[in-house]
Structure prediction request, 413 residues.
Amino acid sequence: MPRLLHLLAAFALFVAHPAAAILPVVHGEPVAPARDFAPAPQLRLAPAKSATARVRLADVAAEALESVRERNRASPHSKGRAQPRRVVIGVVRATDVETGAPPAAQLAWSAVDGGFAARVTVISPQADSLRLAVDVLGTPKDVEMVFYGSANPARLEGPVRVGDIRDRTAPWWTPITEGEAQTIEFFVPAGHEPKRLPLRIVRASHLFTTPSSNFTKRMDDIGRSGSCNVDVACSALASEAAFRDAAASVAQMVFNDGAYTALCSGTLLNDADSSSQVPYFFSANHCFDNEAPPYKTPAQMQSVASTLTTLWGFEAAACGSSSARSSWSQRSGGAAYLYSDPQTDALLLRLNDTPPGEAYFSGWDPNPIQGGAAVVTVHHPQGDLKKVTQGAVLGYSSPGVAGGAARALLSAG
Prediction:
């Protein structure tokens, strides 16, 4: 069904006054080839020979499940229109003293080629997927981590080098792995005493869904995207290079906010300097649950941004397929919070990690969109595989936002 939505845009894209002067347009460009070769993740310990420390958390309380359902029930309405919202897919759990993971001094370190390795497995019963928060403050920069989940141990994530983590003052969140258990293999190069390292797992994010299910929700009242959204592979625009580039700039967001883990969508934006590629990432202020007072402080917004992991190329393998492309990838480095505005529902971040090679730095136009102009929305509605919807600008809202926010009628993909 057609829906009246407030469109999001970079900077002044949808909020500029129609009488504003013509401003320069920033054109898009592909992600530049990586200068450094990223090694494939590999395990250094043989499974049969490794003594893995195992931590089993208590079952998730019924009250926690109900609180997730409550947050995903019908979104608030304004004048009969559904308002945009994020989707909560999990709960954040603290690994306290009784159930906490052992420190590095208590791990079973084994000598391997070039140093020492040890594994820790955290189990959150009945989790569909899992993320873990690792305290790496004071850990040598050349220490590495590789991750895998109990549902698919063959799919390895990483390696992540501690020195590549931008902010090591806060616990760093691992990539998503599927299954109720996630295992981390730590590698400490020779020259360090592994038992003296301050490494420790301090939290877990228990997810009620999985990437392999296309983030199909296990709880019936979460819902899926509307019928006006279609897979990008099914779009009439799919054969056009400009559309494919635009779609490649959109990523699925997974992040923690307080006691919950949520999904949203964002777009990789190009900067105005042709000699650089700063990974600006544009999203919606409501994604960080900041649309109503009391508004979050910059420090609180940063604490959410630091947990961000992004999924790239997370779209249907082909038109009509219910499976995601096998080549989708994940970046779990978090982001720096730069700007947000509740009135225009704008959120601007800078990713800490380099986007994958298949991504695209989207161009953007700060000039006002005229009424009747065709628009295309590419996003992950309700956490589904990447979708597209087409429509047209109806005009500018009034009052409430300086210059008015563009409104569009979106009807079909």
